[in-house]
Amino acid sequence: MVETPPSVITPSKEYKELQEKLDKIDEMVDNTNAEIMQRLGKKAGRDIGIVYGFIIGLIIVLLVEKLIPKILLFIHMQ
Question: What does each C-alpha distance from 2 to 5, 8, 54 come to in angstroms?
Fold first, then answer.
């Protein structure tokens, strides 16, 4: 006598319904993770923009500080 391995029969309707629910949950988790990453990206971009703005402003101030005396000398020479 040959024994057949045990098998599980799942009702296709219940399985499909369960699979649909799991797909919806998976989609909600993916959307939530995407929103969290987008917010983190915005915060990082804002912080980097602040640093770049500070550096550019400092460079402009230093350049203006060096150029104004030369411009005033040039104006007085004329």
Answer: 10, 19, 81
Contacts of 17 (CB under 8 A, 6+ apart): none
What is the DSSP secondary-structure string of 2-65? PPPPP-----HHHHHHHHHHHHHHHHHHHHHHHHHHHHHHHHHHHHHHHHHHHHHHHHHHHHHH
User: Please, what's the b/e burial string for 3-28 (b: 16 or more CB within 10 A of its CB; e: otherwise)?
Assistant: eeeeeeeeeeeeeeeeeeeeeeeeee
38: pLDDT strictly greater than 90? yes
Greater confidence, 45 or 2?
Answer: 45
pLDDT given at position 23 = 96
| Domain limits, the chain | 13-77
54 against 13, higher pLDDT:
54
